């Protein structure tokens, strides 16, 4: 996973005026170097701020610069995230007095620094922080105060912190949130709170405005932190906080899941079969962290179980070559610098989009065909790539292609082959495994059969063991991500 937090050993003598200069005309005459004391200077390099002080030179990546300002006495103060280890960054400050006081010059230079530090990412985000005190091993509050809040504060964000009080509280908070006051809802939790927040937005009369306007991000404080892994490329709380500070607004497809009379929004996955069972039947083993998924898989494999169902699928790309081509076409595009979706105006009624294919209660849509899957072992539809830190289950997944990636694996597969298939995930050979059926789809209906009871997982939450239907909504939700258009996962 890429991680841009380390202080690079870039060439400090590279001419900063030669490359990567994104400054506008107003700033063109601002010098790159600020003389700060007889033997010290601050220089805006290509990727980093170069600090020369008494013959020592070091660089601070622009990515790590959180804020800069002048103090009353004219001192230039720069706040940045300092890497104290591979997994932890902490805010630090450097401050220097200009050799010749010139507040206009200092302000202009700081503006240029912040432009390089933030690029297309919004500065001083207004953030509603939600902390789930029961997320993961119950340490969300501790993690927030130690690793996350200091980064947000150093970046001069406006923070409004609330602790969730009960199951479903995230839905209530999002449903009544004054969305004009916030740019981001940051969930210090597992994947459960983002799921609730998007569902809370989905219940509003201005659902589409809320879903486009307010980005939902996760700071990894739970046992399942897929949202963060995929968009920030890390499950370290402080690195994720830094990534969120620098995150680009990125549209994310969301799916409607209908079952009975309920319509739920799903951002992560829907599963029936072995993965659902592992996800839901091993909740009591949360203390194991993500290892519980591997453990659960091995235990269940011994049984070699089939989960028969009738399935209808609306296919977009029906074979691996077409899936790979779609992925590569998107990955080849330059990073997104702006969000070009239309934001419905405030006050306009804009509830969730209508369902193109109706609900599970409607007759099968025209052209759909229910196909018996009597030997089904795993039906797994994913919207993101990583499902857990070592599990890039859906390497071809894309945030805004309007598709779910669908994996089907037979339950009759020999145990040795099943284990080889599991191991193939970490070796990045899963996608090409001949035992894995992989497609991109826009909707499906699944009707489990010949089983009294079982597990169905939507975003890691258990839903009743009954038929359900899913339909994708292209770019309905919004996240912040490192590169704006593909996940922080190895693709295909
Ligand atoms: N104060 C609370 N008391 C009890 N449950 C809560 C509270 N706040 C939030 N929850 C619930 O905790 C559940 C799990 O949350 P979260 O995803 O943050 O943690 P997690 O450890 O990663 O769990 P999971 O692995 O199930 O996703 C959510 O369904 C949420 O509604």
From TrEMBL:
Pfam families: DAGK_cat (PF00781), DUF7493 (PF24321). Keywords: Kinase, Transferase. The keyword Transport does not apply. Residues 1-10 have a biased composition (Acidic residues). GO terms for cellular component: cytoplasm; membrane. Residues 122-261 form the DAGKc domain. Residues 1-24 are annotated as: Disordered. GO terms for molecular function: sphingosine kinase activity. InterPro entries: ATP-NAD_kinase_N (IPR017438), Diacylglycerol_kinase_cat_dom (IPR001206), DUF7493 (IPR055916), Lipid_Phosphate_FormReg (IPR050187), NAD/diacylglycerol_kinase_sf (IPR016064). The keyword Transferase applies. Its EC number is 2.7.1.91. Gene3D superfamilies: 2.60.200.40, Probable inorganic polyphosphate/atp-NAD kinase, domain 1. One of its GO terms (biological process) is sphingosine biosynthetic process. It is an enzyme of class 2 (transferase). PANTHER family: ACYLGLYCEROL KINASE, MITOCHONDRIAL, SPHINGOSINE KINASE. This is Sphinganine kinase lcb4.
